[in-house]
Amino acid sequence: MSATVEFAKMNGLGNKILVVDMRGRTDKVTPQAAIALNADAATAFDQIMAIHDPKAEGTDAWIDILNCDGTKAQACGNGTRCVVQALSAETGQKVFTLQTVAGILNAAELADGTISVDMGRPVFEWDKIPLAEEFFDTSRIELQIGPIDNPVLHSPSAMSIGNPHAIFWVDRDPMSFDLERFGPLLENHPMFPEKANITLAQVTSDASLRTRTWERGAGLTLACGSAACAAGVSAARTGRTGRKVTIDVATAPSRQPLTIEWREDDHVVMTGPAEWEWSGTVDPVTGAWQRDEAVEAPGAEAK
Ligand SMILES: N[C@@H](CCC[C@H](N)C(=O)O)C(=O)O
C-alpha cells in the first residue's frame, strides 16, 4: 500500500472540507492525521470526507467522515456535495449513490453545477436523536441558557439527520449572539449524550431562514449543511415555514443560499454549491502532506 493518497482541499459554502481518496485501501484516515492536518493553517479543515471502496451493491462509494478534532461524524451535508463534485469531475458521472454509517445518500450534480443530496429521513424520537431525557415532543424541548427568568436561548427543536442537532429559534440576527461562548456549553450539555450541533435560526419569511452553527467536534464553522437541513425541517415541523426553504447561512462568504426541501415522502433534499480549491497528496496515518503543482480544477477542461 502506498504511503500517500490524493486529496483535495474543497469547501461547501465556506465549510472547510478535505476530500481524501482512500479507494483501493483497507486502512482509514487516522484521528492523528486529522489532528495534524487541522493544526496546519494551509490544511485546517472542518471535516474530512474519506472516499472508500463501496461496501454494498449498487453504491458508488463508502464515505467515512471525521471532524477536525479527530472524532467521527455520521453526516456532513456540505462535505457530501464536495465528494459528489470531486467524483463527477473525475468520472463525468452525474448521479451517485453513497453510503455512510447513517445510511444511503442519493446525490446528483445538476446542470447549473449545484449539487443535490437526499440526506434521508429526519429522526425525531428522543432516544434516537439521542437526548438524555424522554420527550414526547422533541420539536420544543426544555433546555435553556442564561438567567432562568430571562434566558438568552431556550426551547430548541431537536432532531437527527444522521447526526444530532438542536435548533434554537431567535428573533434577531444570529450574528448578534455570542455563539462562541454558548456553543461549547450547549454542544456538551448533559441533555446530549452524543453531544450535538447547535444552530441559531431566524425565520426571515415563510420560505427562508438565516442560520449560524456551532458544530460538534469542529466549533464555529462558516457553514453546516446538515444543520441547514435540521433547521429547514424543524421550521416546517413547528409551523414556522413551508416545507421548502432557502437558508441564508449567515457566515458563508459567498452568501449563496442552500435550498432545503422536506419532501412529502419524508426525505430531506439539500441543494447547493461545492468548490474545489487545490489538490495534493497526504499520508493518511501521519497527516504529512504535499500540494500538487497543477492549478486547474480536475475535470475543468471537460466542462
Ligand atoms: N459540516 C457538516 C456537519 C459535520 C458533522 C458535525 N460536526 C457532527 O459531528 O455531527 C455539514 O455540512 O453537515
Automatic annotation (TrEMBL):
Give the GO molecular function terms: diaminopimelate epimerase activity
Q: What Gene Ontology cellular-component terms does the record carry?
A: cytosol
Name the active site residues.
C76, C224
Known EC number: 5.1.1.7
Alphabetized, the UniProt keywords read:
Amino-acid biosynthesis, Cytoplasm, Isomerase, Lysine biosynthesis
Task: State the family named in the UniProt similarity comment for this chain.
Answer: Belongs to the diaminopimelate epimerase family.
Oligomer and partners:
Homodimer.
Protein name as annotated: Diaminopimelate epimerase
Organism of provenance: Rhizobium metallidurans
